[in-house]
Each structure stands twice: as structure tokens, then as C-alpha cells.
Amino acid sequence: MKEKRAKKIVYRSESEMPAMVISVGSQTHNLTGAWRNIRPEIDRAKCLKCGICWKFCPEPAIEIVDEWPVIDYDYCKGCGICAEECPAKCIVMAEERK
Amino acid sequence: MRKVIMGNHALSYGAKLARARVISAYPITPQTQVVELLSEMCADKTLDAKFIKVESEHSAMASCIGASAAGARTFTATSAQGLALMHEMLHWASGGRHPVVLGNINRAMAPGWSIWADQNDSLSERDTGWMQFYCSSNQEVLDSVIQAFKVGEALMIPAMVILDAFALSHTYEVVEIPEQDKVDAFLPPFDPEIRLAPSDPHAFGGLTGPEHYFELRYKLQKDMEKAPALIEETGREYEKLFGRHLGLVDEYMCDDAELLFVTSGTAGYTANVAVDLLRDEGVKAGNLRMRVLRPFPFEAVRRIVGKAGKVAVVDRNISYGHHGIFYQEVKSALYGQANRPPLFGYITGLGGRDITHESFKEIAAHALAKDGADEEIVWIGVKR
After folding, report:
1. Residue A1 above 50 pLDDT?
2. Which of A88, B75, B85, B312 sits in a 20 to 30 Å window from B104, CA-based?
3. Closest chain B residue to A11, measured at CA
4. Interval B127-136 mean pLDDT
């Protein structure tokens, strides 16, 4: 899994900031996986390694690792698009255990 | 080269000479010829630009913002309902600091459905963080587009070049079209420090918490405060190359004015004629035409208005429940100033009713007969 973590950037003064705020890291340090109510779980026994879930994930919170799709639960919001699109129906949306 | 062209085409030629790289627009009366000509220029390759056809003005501004973020000089044009539909994206352009230049044809907002001139469309966007240039001739339209790119890109603030529907948009005037190489010398290519590039990917306009948002707005205001001096400096530089001067305001016989009109747009041109006629009758009239409303030219307005006998602010717009908008702006600029001449606010010409020199004579007669405003709004030409 590629390193996604970014430190939260906090500028101490306006003079340090660019006029257009770019890449302050909010997309990475906010772990949006906490929003999730249902979680996708991949059954590797049925997985075709087609990569369609990876293509469709809008976050994107699926990476292909050694040909297998791997879900990054720090960012997966549980939208279920991967499960919907999976042609092998190998992704189930399970109740989140909190 | 001198050409007889309509105001709309003056916008097109301005964008062409500025070498806009991306143009995205949706047609609307009375703006259509602006983008008609630009799309022809793109098609016949006289302008090396990408013309993006879109399904709405909201998308037009959205694509302009994307193009500008990628480092392209970007132009669009619209009017009234189209500008209103762009409203959300206007904030994205200014807040994101994308110096798009937009030609807006001042057209009255519906309903009643209107295609004729008044300023409520652009004035409704006064607080979006865009610079606003109000033009009074086709030559000024063309020159303003080029200067707006120069000032806007230096400050990373977008700008609107604004002209009255029909009174300017469809009116043909002689316009000196500058030579391309001279414009190139004046306006170098747009080369922003930060840009959207696959080789250096960044998130633009992402979630910005209370720890940063406030500072971004502070910076936008601080840069806007630099604009008045830069507009003047740019105007002087332009004058050296092209022999025509444009500043924050246009003064006509203001120095000894007992009665000073404060005007904008084409009414500001008519006001000069009225000043001449009034002077023939022995009334020392003057005209302060405000070319720039945002940034507000505080220093120029205070200096020029402060020395007038009486001041008549003429608005082709209204803030319902308040006054004419230029009137309230001028009035607020004078608060606390030592020199505060009697100020009168006139509303006229809404929805394209003509503002003629007779309108100004009526205004003059009213202002000269009174010592102070006994009504906040004086309506000129309304049938009642």
C-alpha cells in the first residue's frame, strides 16, 4: 500500500500561505473512513482480479497490490459502488462494527 | 488599424489581442456577437485558442476556472441571467485566485423579461471579489480587456469588463485596433507561479478549515487594495504605448464644478454632452465618470467629489430597500471626510429607458434648486 499519510499543514501566518490554498493535506489527514456505516469486504476466493472495483471507487480507496484489490479503510466511506459494480459479486457490504 | 465595430466586437478584439488561450461561453442576448466572432477567429485560426462550447454559463465559468488553473489566459462573456447563473462560479474564480476576464453586457434582470440595459446584473456580483470596469465607449472596451488581463494576472484577481446593452454592445464606433506586437510587448504571456499540472499534482480549493480560510480572505482583500495603484500605473504604461489613457475615474470639467455628476457606463458619456450644454447656459457642471467600482477608488472619489459644490450621483440600478448603488458607495466613501458637499441620488434608465442629455438637465435643475436631499431617491423619468 502506497503511503498516503500527510501531516496536517497549519500555517502560522498569512504571509507563509500561497494566495490560492492548495494541498494543505486536508484530503489525507482527515480519515473519512470514520463516516462509514457499512464496509466492503472482498472474498478473494471469488475475485477475478479484474480491477473494476479499483476503477469505479470514487474516493479512491482501493489499490491494486500484487494484482489483488485492497481496500483502504482509513478513507473508504462505504458507498458500496465497488460491490455494485463487481462482476463476480465477490464484494459484500457488511454492517460496520464500531 | 482603425475599424468601425460594435461594442461586442470590441470585447472580441480585446480578447484576441490579449491572446486568450481558452474561451468558454454560452450565448445570450445581447452578448452573442462577442463569442460569435471569437468562435470564428478560433475556427479560421486567426486566434490560437481552444473554444469550449458548454451547456450553461455555470459551466462556462467552471471551464474557464479549470483552464486558468492550468495556466491559460482565459476569457468569457455573458449578460444578466447568464451572469446570475455564473454566480457560484464567480466566487470560485476569485476565491481560487484565477484571473479570468469576463465581458458582461449590462442587461436588466428578469422579470419582466428584458434584454435592455441596466446595471443590476453586474452590481449583484459586486461582492464576489471580482474587479469591475464600467466602459463608456467601444475603444475603452477593447483597451480595458487588455488592461484587465494585465492587472488581473499581476494580482491573481479576476475582472469584469462591463458595457451597456445596445447603447454600447450593438452600437458601432470607430475603434483603433492596436498592433499585435505592441500588445504583446505590453502584455506578456500568462505564467502563474502555481498551476494545475500532472507533473506536480495538487488539490486546488480543497477543504479549508477555520485555521486557514480567514487568512485567504485577508489576502484577497490585501491584494485588492493594491489594485487601484496598479490600475493607474497600468493605464499610464498603456498610454505610453498606445496614446490613450484610462484610469480609475474619468474626470470631465470637475475642477471648478458647482454641480458634479457622478456617472458610469454610457450615461457617463452622455453626461459630458450635458456638461457642455449646461456650461453654455452658465452652469458650472462637471462629470466624474467612475470607470472602476471594484476596487472602489476611494482616494479619487474623495478628492474630486470633495471639492464640488453639489453632487448628483446617477444610478442605472437600484438596491431595493436602500438606494442607487453608486450613490450609497459614494456616500459611504465620504463619511468622516472634512469635505462633504450635498449629495443627491438619482435613479434613471432602468430596463433600457434612454438616459439623454435632457435627463441630466432635469437632474441639474433638481439639484441646483435644493440645498440638500429631502428624499433619498429622486426618480428621473418614471411615469407617475
Report:
1. no
2. B312
3. B212
4. 98
pLDDT attached to residue A5: 61
Q: What is the pLDDT of residues B189-222, one digit of tens each?
A: 999 988 999 998 888 888 888 989 999 999 999 9
Which of A16-25, B23-32, B122-131 is predicted least confidently? A16-25
CB B61 within 8 A of CB B35: no
Distance from CA of A41 to the nearest CA of B (A): 29
d(CA B45, CA B234): 30
Query: A14 — phi, psi (to 5°)?
Result: -60, -30
Share of chain B above pLDDT 90, in %: 95
Residues A31, A13: contact at Cβ < 8 Å?
no
A26 touches chain B (CB under 8 A): yes
B176: which strand partners? B2
Q: Do A24 and B205 touch (CB under 8 A)?
A: no
CB within 8 Å: A22 and B218 = no
Q: Do A21 and B209 touch (CB under 8 A)?
A: no
Please tell me whether residue B208 adopts helix, strand or coil conformation. Answer: coil
Tens digits of residue pLDDT in A42-87: 999 999 999 999 999 998 999 999 999 999 999 999 999 999 999 9
- Which residues of A fall within a CB distance of 8 Å from B212? 10-11, 17, 21, 24
Q: Any idea which residue has 480578447 for its cell?
A: B15
Residue B100 and residue B64: Cα distance in Å, rounded? 7
| Rounded Cα–Cα distance for residues B54 and A57 (Å) | 27
| Contact assessment for residue B144 and residue B135, using Cβ atoms and an 8 Å cutoff | yes
- Residue of B151, B130, B285, B166 lying closest to B231 (CA atoms): B151
Cα angle B319, B321, B327 (rounded to 5 degrees) comes to: 45
Instruction: Report the C-alpha gap between B259 and B254 in whole angstroms.
Output: 9
- DSSP H/E element including B369: helix B357-369
pLDDT of residue A98: 64
Mean pLDDT of B70-99: 98
- DSSP for A62-79, written as a single string: EEEETTEEEE-TTT----
Reading the block at residue B88, the C-alpha cell is 457560484
Complex ipTM, two decimals?
0.77
With cell 458634479, the residue in question is B260
Contacts of B214 (CB under 8 A, 6+ apart): none
- Distance CA(B116)–CA(B124), nearest Å, equals 17
Q: Let me know how long chain B is.
A: 384
